Amino acid sequence: MKKYIILMSFLLTGGLGLQAQNSEIPSSVKNVETKVDSILFMMTLEEKVGQLVQYNGSWDLTGPASEMGNKEKEERLKKGLVGSMLNVLSVEATREAQKLVMENSRIKIPLMFGYDVIHGYKTIFPVPLGETASWDLEAMEKSARIAAIESVADGVNWTFSPMIDVSRDARWGRIMEGSGEDPYLTSLVGVAKIKGYQGDDLSDSTTIAATAKHFAGYGFAEAGRDYNTANVGEYELHNFILPPFKAAADAGVATFMNSFNTIDGTPATGSKMLQRDILKRDWNWNGFVVSDWGSITEMIYHGFSKDKKHAAEIAFKAGSDMDMEGGAYEAGLLELVEEGEIDESLIDDAVERILRVKFKMGLFEDPYRYSNPELAEQISYEEHREVARDIARKSVVLLKNEDDILPIKSEVQKMAIIGPLAADKDTPIGNWRAQGEANSAVSVLEGIKAAAGDNVEITYAEGAPLGIGERSFLMPLEINETDKSGFADAISKAENADLVIMVLGEDAFQTGEGRSQAKIGLAGVQQELLEEIYKVNQNIALVLINGRPLEITWAAENIPAIVEAWQLGSESGHAIADVLFGKYNPSGKLPVSFPKAVGQEPLYYNQQNTGRPYSEEHVTFSSYTDVDKEPLYPFGFGLSYTDFEYGEIQLSAEEMNANGEIMVSVPVTNTGDVAGKEVVQLYLRDLVASKARPIKELKGFEMIELNPGETKTVEFIIDEEMLRFYSANKKWESEAGDFEVFVGTNSRDLKKAEFTLNK
Ligand code: NOJ
């Protein structure tokens, strides 16, 4: 009845008319919901199911391609039986595909065009793990904004980003795509990214729809092996995995993507508990869920469905709204409704969700608004690169700097730049590089040459190649394990230098999808090269270019300076040189723990205490007998060219009520000779609770800038909401009792105070 009234009022006020352009939607029909319902009313069941289907364009495969040929896809587009496409790039190509729908289909529902815009579109920013190390939310919002602008200039109006999978395992290849091990930091970064992509108004033709992915548990793949089972209990799920997704839903992210893994025995794609109950019901989120690539059909391999139709039934009932290049919904949904297995009202709900996003994007007003050739001409890629340089240098983390070897001193007259990644212009672009051109980054060598001036003699030697053969998204990477023919040249150049800059790490295609590793040291012959160089010259600054935490214990013990420079994107070499020469004083902090040995993984700071945290007398406590349990570099760690001294914590009160607050203040002084930035971090611990709580959890941070000798008092407010967790009562609540509060420069070196919550 409701639908009938809506339709009548719609038709009486002008109506859409089956052949009419959707721009003719009468202005009196203002409300998006009314518009959505009006369109839905006119759709046949076949057309509705069509909206739940996503096709891949043949440009950029990121998984096994479907069997359907392009001709058949085209026919189905013309009939209006496709809701969106992915990997269709360029204004021309997206216009072409949109035209097929708009000029041939009955109801003319515009397509959305999705793509993996993960860390930039053409201008490439640091890989997300690296960018998170900046702890600079404004900067991260800005890079997403730029990525959005460059995307729409190429017809793309929907990104499958941000990836907000908390991950504690350096072996997992996709750890580079997320924000590391902490749910609070990941939540803030996710929201900043969503704001950057979506802006305040999704219909603005320079914004794109964002996707919170992968829902859920993908980052907890057992043994860090991609696509593997996630064994996660309810407590772990709610306290550590879901918070970033809740924050994304609250921030109005347009879409969610589910994930490949099973979680507690159920494929996430088929999990009603996750999608329908938590996301759509409890969080009251009204966007749509897209499956991951073929993840509906993959439930057959999980042993969870017997065929495509069965997979479609499970995924759809569970709340997956759109089938990414899987063919399951196309194969099964129509029949399932006709057979009465699926209620058409459920189909309507999914279609409504998709139409709602399309309305918000303004696609019904102008289906071609994101395929605008003029936009590309207005973009200043040069300006974007300037921003990329700034964010890249903010993302660098100084791990070690013995005897202040850095910044490079003016006495250094001869520098040897050595290593397989020193002159590499491709690796800094990283994996998931969208339309970032191969070999387009500024290399470290180029950056150093540009910054050093004419008085410094610079020599270069590769030492040994890292990856050999063809490199691409889908192909396995071959690492050089044998060729050391360049060692002699590198050694002789090192012998003659005042300072050696060694540039080692990982190839761009050592991390990313399907790139999990059981070993996380310096791959190939790099460790050997480092040790050989060290024999002839110990004055070494090691620059690491990588997408995951590496096991670099030997280097940490022997090499005087270590700079974590991730894969920093287009302006990598300039940004690294800015840091090496002291033009930028490093301020980055690790968003993930670095292990002493790979056997410590998964490794994370916000762990539980265990019943046997420590013993001086015997071995029967929770550690290892060969390596201690502490990380090499803890979460939140990062040095500066200056020193910061923390005073004692002052609390405004030692007790608080549920509606009260306590102010925590700490004076921080720059005791060094240069100005610097510091990320002051706040952690809390709930000492006794209905569930064992972590030994500390990040709850706040502030970046301050101090001149030499300057002191600032940093203040944090603690309120009851910050003390909540998913408790034994299966709800978010705080529990009365004692808490510890910590403030400091990283998750290990902290000042401590205590307070009590009374309820
Ligand atoms: C599979 C990946 O898991 C997902 O993150 C990505 O967005 C899709 N492929 C599309 O490329």
Automatic annotation (TrEMBL):
Coiled coil: none
Domain Fibronectin type III-like, chain residue ranges per copy: 678-747
Pfam family, one: Fn3-like
InterPro entries listed in its UniProt record: Cellulose_Degrad_GH3 (IPR051915), Fn3-like (IPR026891), GH (IPR017853), Glyco_hydro_3_AS (IPR019800), Glyco_hydro_3_C (IPR002772), Glyco_hydro_3_C_sf (IPR036881), Glyco_hydro_3_N (IPR001764), Glyco_hydro_3_N_sf (IPR036962)
EC number: 3.2.1.21
Molecular function GO terms recorded: beta-glucosidase activity
Recorded catalytic activity of this chain's protein: Hydrolysis of terminal, non-reducing beta-D-glucosyl residues with release of beta-D-glucose
Residues of the signal peptide: 1-20
Keyword Signal set for record: yes
Keywords: Glycosidase, Hydrolase, Signal
Recorded superkingdom: Bacteria
Family: Belongs to the glycosyl hydrolase 3 family.
Name listed for the protein in its UniProt record: beta-glucosidase
Organism the protein comes from: Autumnicola patrickiae
Name of the gene encoding the protein in the UniProt record: bglX
